[in-house]
Amino acid sequence: MSTGHAHARATITPYPDGPLLVRGDVELRTGDGEPIAPHRRTIALCRCGLSALKPFCDGTHKAAGFRTDD
Q1: Between the CA of residue 41 and those of 1, 22, 24, 70, what are the distances in Å?
Q2: Which residue, 67, 40, 43, 65, is CA-closest to 54?
Q3: What residues pair up with 21 in beta bridges, in sequence order?
Q4: If you placed Cys at 61, which of 4, 42, 66, 68 could pair as Cys (CB 3.0 to 4.6 Å)?
């Protein structure tokens, strides 16, 4: 049964030397399965492991000099 709402296909884009940018319809959950409410339409997920807002990026990768291979 269709609700009439168009769902945006989820995409994940690695930002060079930074976070994973997630766009579209996604459902985030903690390791325990609890839902995490997204704060915006585009979500930046931490890849460096240093963010104080995990799983979200807080920009710490810049000061830490985080580098990716891509």
Answers
A1: 25, 8, 7, 24
A2: 43
A3: 13, 44
A4: 66
pTM of structure? 0.78
Question: What confidence score (pLDDT) does residue 2 get?
Answer: 45
Q: What phi and psi values does residue 58 have, to the nearest 5 degrees?
A: -120, 10
Query: Given its phi and psi angles, is residue 5 left (phi above 0), alpha (psi -120 to 50 degrees) or beta?
Result: beta
The gap from C-alpha 58 to its chain's centroid, in whole angstroms, comes to 11
The residue whose two tokens read 């931490």 is 46
Tell me the two tokens of residue 31: 């390791």
d(CA 40, CA 50): 21
Please name every residue paired with 56 in a beta bridge, in sequence order, or none if there are none. Answer: 45
Point out the residues of the chain with pLDDT beneath 50. Answer: 1-2
Structure tokens at 68: 């990716």
